Amino acid sequence: MRILIHRPTTLVAQAAILLIAGCTGPDTGTPASGDGVLDRPIPAAAAAPTAGSEPIPAGRNASERSDPAEAAETPDTTSPGDETADATASDPAREGRRAWEDGDVAAAVRLLRQADRLGKASRWDRYLLGLALWKQGELEEAAAVLEAVAAETPPLPRAAVNLARVRLDMGDVPGARDAAERALAAAPDFAPAHNVLGRVLLAEGDAHGAASAFEDAARLDPEDPWPLNNLGYLFLVTGRAAEAARVLERAVERDPELAPAWNNLALARERLGELAGARDAAERAARLSGLDRHRATAARLERLARTAAPQRPAPTVAPEDNLAEAGAGDPRGEGL
Questions:
Q1: How many domains does the chain have?
Q2: If you average pLDDT over residues 275-288, what whole number do you get?
Q3: Cα–Cα 20 to 30 A to 232, which of 109, 124, 160, 259?
């Protein structure tokens, strides 16, 4: 894919910064974007959005920066294979992997750190340590661990992808671009790498390039709904509600349980004046996630639909995105 970087307009750049600060993508091996993003606003460390008013960008969860819980895209089911060390009954690496799979991030960090100190951690174990540190909010250490893993040979593209996500959460957009480009150089057809590049380009203010990257990610992995969610988010923040609604409807068709996409769809429909449809989508998001902000959106749209109140101006807050939502069980660490 050939991306042309355009000079960002003030409006898009501001929207992208809001995304970065508010959201991305988890790895089950979120944050994370497909290969790791979160149910929060897109780019780097994100500021918590106002309840009921934010669309869900790609990856939005690790601390509402790139919230690991919502930043995760699709859990990584890839087997570590040779990357996994032989385990014994008292092997901290094995126990650390088990803790990660069980969603016990704190235990995973403790055990995998111990395994690393003892020289018993495989490359995969150190990769998981980086993801666990990310989800625990220890961004500096997470970046250092993932950088070390990504620098080894042969390349582990997902390590570079999640390094990009962590750097977005840190507000290091140039560093995130470097990591995303390294992932693409190692694996040109790796959908999560295109997805995180889209987040980087959006953070840089290049909406056209970001849209192209999200479209490439969706094409390369037709089963992953996160690139479509992120593309819909991009359309929302750039005032293209009709296009956002069409793309987000495709996202929820791919994954009917993707709460961020339902919430973003609700906001898109609201902006189009389709209050009943907006309410239904918001209620679906609230049931799936149980999050207060989704319940607040559903309650607000229920009132609007019931009273047929005039449409209010669209809020200027960032929608939610997978870039910041990565689940503890997803080794890829997206969200985003």
A1: 1
A2: 96
A3: 160
Tell me if 60 is assigned to some domain: yes
| pLDDT attached to residue 323 | 41
Per-residue pLDDT band at 90 (split at 50, 70, 90): confident
Cα 257 from Cα 246, distance rounded (Å): 17
CA–CA separation, 12 vs 67, rounded Å?
A: 22
Q: Which residue is listed with tokens 């479209």?
A: 215
Let me know if residue 145 belongs to a domain.
Answer: no
Q: Residue 313 domain-assigned?
A: yes
Global pTM value: 0.72
Neighbouring residues of 29: CB distance < 8 A, sequence distance ≥ 6? 75, 76, 78, 80, 100, 124, 127, 128, 131, 158, 330, 331, 332, 333
Task: Report pLDDT digits (tens) over 12-34.
Answer: 444 444 443 334 444 444 333 33
Domain that holds residue 281: 10-74+190-321
Give the CATH number of the domain where residue 268 resides: 1.25.40.10
Question: Nearest Cα to 263, choosing from 326, 306, 320?
Answer: 320
